[in-house]
Amino acid sequence: MFFLCPLTLGQAFGLLSFSWNVKGLPHPRDTMALSTELKKQTQLREVAGVLLQATSVDNWSQIQSFEAKSDDLLICTYPKSGTTWIQEIVDMIEQNGNVEKCQRAIIQHRHPFIEWARPPQPSGVEKAKMMPSPRILRTHLPTRLLPPSFWDNNCKFLYVARNAKDCMVSYYHFQRMNQVLPDPGTWEEYFEAFINGEVAWGSWFDHVKGWWELKDRYQILFLFYEDIKRDPKHEIQKVMQFMGKHLDEAVLDTIVLETSFEKMKENPMTNRSTVPKSILDQSISPFMRKGTVGDWKNHFTVAQNERFDEIYRKKMEGSSINFCLDL
Ligand code: A3P
């Protein structure tokens, strides 16, 4: 089945103007200034062959000279692989299953996003500097772009990988609703962009392979989205042990319940409902969209699937990593 909802960049900004008009009719000049600013933020620029948001690239020297500490834990993911999910799991473990403590802030503010930069707001690096240790941070960077101090300090890394097909589908819908990422075009166009790594944070293949190859050389706990979905308690226990925590069965059960898709979809601290529509338009696609394994079957044509499998074989040749594509 095809899911076609192409929105041009202009239309996306049209939606943006509309949402402002119904709220307070800004002067057209202000709308234009906002559009120009958002368009600037929509741009992607390359760093060593990896596309990143232009605002992060502008801040690149600050990001690269980030000073990691030996007790930092870095949550690492390719976009749309379950970042929010693992963040909530980690925070629930850190807070010993205390739900109220996890409500202290929206999830985006709990773990500084080290490559995030959108002046005049404080950057991810600045937020991390203000955070007391032991810090829990997050990134979407591939291994070769990670600030070197993370390796030098032998930090702990928690990587979550999601199968490429579901990741592509999730990213496509996310780019449709995210007004500060480029418009994804049609599903067919997006399919090409994704397999060629022409999306923010670059190639899924390079990202996953890079982290997988380093998993035995550094302190990397490598998890799969599909495993967390299949047996959340088991995977949450692994995270708990990796973090050096000991929680009893009842607390673990609470964490499993509170981090379920259904609970997180209703939770304003995790579902992005506090983000303005001018940035994330959830009427186009909800942030907490489906949270399943195998939705790719509703999007890939037979021909696309065959082509993808062929490309996957070539790009992942020699790698021992295995993904589950259906539960
Ligand atoms: P879908 O678009 O397939 O629904 P990220 O946080 O890295 O941006 O990833 C978002 C994806 O993770 C979305 O996938 C979202 O629904 C899914 N997700 C978030 N919380 C989840 C949970 N508790 N259980 C399962 N999937 C979850």
Automatic annotation (TrEMBL):
EC main group: transferase
Give GO cellular component annotations, separated by semicolons. cytoplasm
**Record's InterPro entries?**
P-loop_NTPase (IPR027417), Sulfotransferase_dom (IPR000863)
SUPFAM superfamilies with a match to the protein in the record: P-loop containing nucleoside triphosphate hydrolases (SSF52540)
Ranges that cross the membrane: none
Q: What is its EC number?
A: 2.8.2.-
Q: Tell me the ranges covered by the Sulfotransferase domain, including all copies.
A: 71-319
Subcellular location(s): the record lists: Cytoplasm
Signal peptide span: 1-24
A single GO molecular function term of this UniProt record? sulfotransferase activity
Q: In terms of domain of life, where is this protein from?
A: Eukaryota
Gene3D superfamilies named in the record: P-loop containing nucleotide triphosphate hydrolases
Protein keywords? Cytoplasm, Signal, Transferase
Please give the family membership noted in the entry: Belongs to the sulfotransferase 1 family.
- State the protein's name: Sulfotransferase
Q: Which organism is it from?
A: Carlito syrichta
